[in-house]
Amino acid sequence: MRETLEALRHKGRNVGFFSKNLAKVAPLALVCGIGLFSTGDLFGETLEGWIQKEEKFAASRLLDATVDHGDGHLTLVASADPNVPAYNFHWVRDAAAVMRSILYLYQVNRNSEIREKYTKYFEEYVAFSRKIQEAPNPSGGVGEPKFHPDGTPFLGDWARPQNDGPASRAITLISWAQLLIREGKEDYVKKHLYDSTLPTQSVIKTDLEYVANNWRISSFDLWEETKGKHFYTLMMERRALLDGAQLARELADPNAAEWYTQQAKSIESQLELFWDPTRHILMPSRDVEGSSSARESGLDSSVILAVVLGHTQDHFMEFDDERVLATLHALENRFQSLYSINHNPDIPGLAIGRYPEDRYDGYSTVSEGNPWIPLTAIFSQFYERLALHYEKAGACVMTDVSMPFFNQLLAGREEASLAPGVYSSETPEFARIVRALRFKARAYLSRIAYHAGPNGELSEQLNRDTGYLQGAQHLAASYATVLWAIWARRGDFPNPQQPSNP
Ligand code: NOJ
Ligand code: NOJ
Predict the structure, then answer these.
(1) Phi, psi dihedrals of residue 289, rounded to the nearest 5°
(2) For 399-425, what is the mean pLDDT?
(3) Does ligand 1 lie within 6 Å of residue 294's CB atom?
(4) How far is the CA of 174 from the centre of ligand 2 (A)?
(5) Which of 360, 364, 366, 372 to mutate for ligand 1's pocket (most ligand atoms within 8 Å of CB)?
(6) Average pLDDT over residues 317-343
(7) By C-alpha distance, which of 269, 287, 159, 158 is closest to 228?
(8) What is the mean pLDDT of residues 387-394?
(9) Which of 378, 331, 356 lies closest to 493, judged by CA?
(10) Cα 184 from Cα 187, distance rounded (Å)
(11) 90-144 pLDDT, tens per residue?
(12) Of 64, 34, 37, 13, nearest to 456 (Cα)?
């Protein structure tokens, strides 16, 4: 059902919030019933201009999603929006994404005061993470997904466990540990982050041991809805174990390193099973428990998120893997037709949602799903990284399976479509492809700029018909992922996997 602006207003949420955004995004159309967007430009602003402002705004809002306990302690929450109280909690997954951004901000900042502030956030994050790891909870392990800001477990009904959580937290904290080791702070790392002993008292090893011993069990997916085995969860678990093996080697824990690596390799063979050779897509879930009819399309953006966040140096499920590109192609086409805000050719890029059958509108699950800002931002990052990958590789390989992706990428831009084959960096085709990929990365970011609030405010979702910001306001994960997309344009990524030691 199409929701009108009036209906949105009557929900009593968001009223007044981002009101300029309302005025600019859903103007005439709702009144006159004509095309929603009369202009394709960013209201007189260039994308570069928007990015400059957004980068500062997002970096400050990132840290506003915290609860200050007044005693010097802080807790990161998914969103501090008082109108969506269900989000005023610490989510293991969301916090790991936010701290990935803080890590990058720490690295690029030379100002010692700012670096101290970020260090303090990490110390708080480490202490809080350890506290919630130790708190008895309904999952009975570190797969418990969300906690009250005071660190006590949320005891209501919830989808639990969610095993991407400990893997995501380990990935973020391992990067932090490796950075501290390079800064000569190995003692701190051994004491607080990775202690090389069993049973362990340290936060990273606790997560790694859990992942290494439990990746085979069913858990809920990152959308907190489906129980089974998940591509996203396994990709994160795999990367956590490989990163963990590196850290274990650095900290004289060779047996653990070997065990983590073995488990990561076993995960790889499981991940291969997610390819559906008939539909030419990587599926998000297998061995689903309960009713799965709601997810008939087999399409889910979490697959692309997994490829981006779970990326490792060894080219496993690499950005240019034909299966990844075929899945991306199917997702884009599906979301293009599904959301009416994607029908106006004057607005750049596409708005991307979780999965086509989604019914969660940011407040209720018996509604219609919408495009999500974090996912649209991840698609932007994906395209940047794919372009960079080709430049590094010096060639672009096109196969029968990835051909539809390339033909669509170049459609309308070039005269002749291409044939499967290898296009080296000397060929004009190669240059065209890389240019088209960067163009799309930019288009995705423009799309977010188009719908963002007047000061760059972001929420979780965009209304599929009006483009209006919807769901939890100032969702920290939206700011984090948009920052990644902005940094990716400069060829920078938060916590890429370190090249392994010889
Ligand atoms: C249902 C949504 O689909 C899920 O992703 C969300 O985490 C919960 N509701 C809580 O709001
Ligand atoms: C709903 C999303 O589905 C989930 O991935 C996220 O962790 C929570 N919201 C909190 O932002």
Answers:
(1) -95, 140
(2) 87
(3) no
(4) 23
(5) 360
(6) 98
(7) 287
(8) 97
(9) 378
(10) 8
(11) 999 999 999 999 999 999 999 999 999 999 999 999 999 999 999 999 999 999 9
(12) 64
